[in-house]
Amino acid sequence: MSGGRYTIVLAVILGLLAAVFFLFVLEEEEVAVAERVFELNAEEVVEIKVAVDGEVTTIEKVPLEGWVITDPVRYAADPDIVVTLLREFSALSPARTIADSAEVLSEYGLEQPSATVEVIRGLDRPMVLLLGDVNPTGAAHYAVEQGTRRVFLISAQINGNLRKTTDALRDRRLMRVEQDEVEEIVLEKGGRRVVLRLDPFGTWRVEAPYRLPAERDEVINALGTITAATAIAFIDDAPTSLAGYGLADPVMTATVKSGDGSVLHTLSLGNEEMGQVYAMTSERRNVYSVSTSIPRQLDREPDFYRRLTAFDFQSYRVPTFSMNIGDENVTLVKHAFEDWRMTTPYELRANDQFITAMLDSLEIMRVRDHIPATDGNSAGYGFEQPAARLSLTIDDRVNPQEIMIGRNSGDGQYTYVMDPAEEWIYAVDAASLQRMPASAIELRDNKILRFKGYEVHMFEVVTPDERLRVRRDQKQRVVWKLEEPSTGDADAISVGRAFSELDSLYSEAFVTADPDADLTTFGLDRPVMELTLQVGGRDNVPEERLSLLVGRSLPGDENLVYVKRRNSPVVSLARAGFIARINEMVAQTPKS
Question: pLDDT value at position 8?
């Protein structure tokens, strides 16, 4: 037979085998997967009985309580374990059938099964599963539906989820409380009593033995420790005396409460024995053993719960704030990321870097000492006439964050700050606090013009003798076209150098921000040069015209020149070197 025929015959045979596989084998597997031992809707189940080695546990669905063990003891069942048990029971499949009709069930340990699971739905006949021996490989167990003789295998994991003793079915959570329902925590040990309470604005506070803001993370950790406490073992379901466990007069108690009274639970901790601690709750009289980590995490001095930072806010969530600096009231608004604007007492661009650093330092500075805010202390630490007072608007918060900056300590190590709504003055590291401005003008942006070169569409230079205007070509973005004093191509290199010079122009000294100042003094009534940039207006960038007036040189220093934005009262001194670059661009321009 030639190689070509051989290949064709082989392909036909393989095709037939594939067809047989898909038509019969996969179809049988689909049927097997779809088949269930019990037709059961878990929502309809009202009672479950699990027998393991002769011990029978009865679980019932009790209105308003959920799943409850009713025999041999009455105790809450673990809802997660019950849900898993019912899920495994309802999903049982005979796909791994060992015998369709076993003559002798004892061969599989099913004549007298080691465990049974009985599921009851109202008045319907109970569904009963018998669990037998482990198979020779140890990976599965034999099982059969009561009243039938079809023996099948279930995995060791499913067997474990079904074969539950009374102890295993008990709810080991000592209290079923959602953390977001709790508004107060009381921790008591000996004569020490710490009260932590959530205020109406969502801030955790220490309310006793003193009143101040709490460190939220530590409060949440304590709350989690209490509400997630679980029993290692069930020691005594009906103790005749609690003294032997140290629970008649507990070593420590932890109480959680809700504001409306719907939650009120107390966890009592007693003696430690054999690496475990005896415990009980106000819900039941049962005695449990719990991990020693629980008292270790709750046995804290009140200072442990004090907030570590002086103030509670995130700087990136501050859209506006005001400052009182001496007699000046300054208001600043964030227009965009790293774009702060002063709106009072002047309308001008603010120093983004300075403001960001100042807010960041106020956010993270840590408290080194707490000083009671008595009248005498407030005066002594500089709060009668504070160096600065800030009011920060915080996103998603009703009340602003008020901050007062007092004086420094005598050795300069600390700065004293306070929130006027609190009863404490905080000593913080002076080095951690950004220097506060002495006046509003110190918050101005030192950069004379802020723009992005690629967003500039028109650039104009006007002197007493001539006018030069160039505009970016919209098709060839790197090409600049002359509009004044003639038309044609402009020298793109000299235009780029002029932009670079203006982009690096900073104020060397502040002169005045008086809108009524005599501009004649600075040569700005008749400027020697006016530079105008048209920015934006395209690509979703708002249009803006930036105009800079250039006055005369500083008397006695030709290296400094007076400058002023046309729409701003602020007059500054800038280095005069940029004028040469502008003149160079003008010189490169054809005059006709």
Answer: 61
